[in-house]
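Kindly draft a polypeptide, keeping tokens residue-aligned:

***
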Amino acid sequence: KSLLSDHGWAVRAGGTDSCSRPGSGARDCGAGIKRGMELRLTLVYTTGSAVFDDMMQELRSAYSLAGIDLTLQPSASSQVFTELSPCQPKTGFGCHWDLIAYGDVGYAYTYSPDFYPSGDEIFATGAGSNFNGYSDARADQLIRASYSAPGLEPLFRYENYLTEQLPVVWIPNIYYQLSEIKSSLHGAVPQDPNLNIYPQEWSVS
């Protein structure tokens, strides 16, 4: 709520926010957004999981507390991937945001299998797992430096820049399983976020 009101939006919790301070300044609604424009978003998501359906409803409810009107559009996964296309420049807004949730992308966002979070797999221009077509020349430069320049400082510069750019809105993965692990079994926790198991690390007492 504070973030929205600090940037020119009239927040109406339980209703729909609207732009009260149009403009492209640091505390304005943003370039191309007219006075009175309402904050309405459509979220396309894949069906087939009751847990994921519940999660989307919970997300919609949470957004409404900040006056964000979120319309849910459940679709078959094939339809979601058909609609998922790279952002194209358009008059006024530059690139419109794609708002699509397509279930499990955990392997992409945990950088499996190499786990080095350089960003070249998911946020570099034309990267194979860059599903939404995010493209930024400065990000590309920082990504290249993160795996070619020595030390961790290039990686930190990339991380800080992407945090400000916010190329995606991260949503937690859905619940996968309930694990029951005997207290005498050691090395089984914490569990792998990709649900792999490592019996070679287990021991029993």
